[in-house]
Amino acid sequence: MRQRNNTVKIIGVLLITFFMFKKVLRLYYLDIYLFILYFTLFAAMLFGVNYYLKKTYFARLNVYLRENDRNIGWATAIATGLNFIVILCLAIILKMVNTLFIEDDTINNVFLDGAFRAVLNFTTFYSILLAIYFHITFSSLVKDQQLEEQKVITGNVSAQFESLKNQLDPHFLFNSLNVLGALIEEDQDKAVEFNNSLSKTYRYILDQKNKELVPLEEELAFAKTYIELLQMRFEDSLVFELPNEIKQEGAKVVPLSLQLLLENVIKHNKASSQKPIHILISESPDGYLVIQNTLSKKQTLDNRKGIGLENIASRYALLTSKPVSIEETQDTFTVKIPILTKIIEHMRIIDVPENEQEILVEAKKNVEKFKRFYAHLTSYIMVNSFLIVINMITNSTFPWALIPLFAWGIGLAADAMKTYNYNLFLGKDWEDKKIREYMDKHKTDGQKWN
């Protein structure tokens, strides 16, 4: 389906460009071979300029568009203005080449007898087409970014669930409470310390609600607390090494990633004083946080193996192009997670009481419905204005532009009635009124029966 849509778009661009070359720019004696030559030159130059702009300013454009929805209009105007200059130069070149070599005329005629007006008309009309394209593209880009934000939120919720599930695992709690009970009898001070570490662990997990990134210092401090908890359980069966200082300023990581990885080590490896598990956490020069442990695998058939690693990799994939690296040798298992240094905009999260969640969901649906209608209306006005102007310039005797105006207008009217919940024959909110009427009648009949 997508391939068919792309083919239709390409054919549409070719037909529009051929019409613009022949009728608006007035390139005489234009046949199919000459059109292919002109179009190749025109498209290559236009594509090259826009590719350079995209490669140079795309990251800034993303940030700019996310700041405010109104920035879509400014970005469209700037991109259209730059392309207007490029198209004007290309139109002059094509007109000069066609005048000199095809029409066998003098170069002065390019700027006389309305020829330059044809160049300006071509540039204006093609720029309007590109403005429509840019507006649709930038709007889609903003919607995709909002969708990615929702995916990050969903990933965070999934990570919180996975972390809480690991922490609240009956086996984990059983061992922790056994250790705490034994410490109370043997060493009350150590029991208090164990209890404090356990409470800090849960507190940190709850504090990370709705956070997409946390400073590396906080995550390492939490890892140290969690490690102290593990060492009280396993004593000299575990050996840890942590970095003394952070090398990268402003370094951030996905929250609870270290807890998941450390829990993963304990879950899948045997720990004993004769063969302790050695866990090393360090920063690599290529901008990764390295978590490496010696291997002493348990013989188990745990189908959930790797859920934590997949969760971390998926959440990082939404935030950066740098992948999570997993390496396993005969003696060691290493996971490298990217250290992010760029500031990521905070999510716009609406906090409402639980009993109003359904109202919030319905409100979001209605807002999205109105946004789609206004986008449809904008496209309708821009495209039909463009077609009407072309109709007046090329052939004002036959108003062919009214055909798409009325045909598309029928679809727009249907969309408006659906958006505003209006029925042409039954009035506004007819469906809701009938539902309420039926419910009231059903309620009255029930009271009569009682």
TrEMBL record:
Keyword set includes Electron transport: no
Residue intervals of the Signal transduction histidine kinase internal region domain: 159-238
Residues spanning the signal sequence: none
Cellular component aspect of the GO annotation: membrane
Residue ranges constituting the 2TM domain according to the UniProt record: 362-440
Sequence intervals crossing the membrane: 7-26, 32-53, 74-94, 114-136, 373-393, 399-417
GO molecular function list: phosphorelay sensor kinase activity
InterPro entries in alphabetical order: 2TM_dom, Bact_2-comp_sensor_kinase, HATPase_C_sf, Sig_transdc_His_kin_internal
Keywords of this entry: Kinase, Membrane, Transferase, Transmembrane, Transmembrane helix
Claim: Kinase is one of the keywords in the record: yes
PANTHER family linked to this entry: SENSOR HISTIDINE KINASE YPDA (PTHR34220)
Name this protein carries in UniProt: Histidine kinase
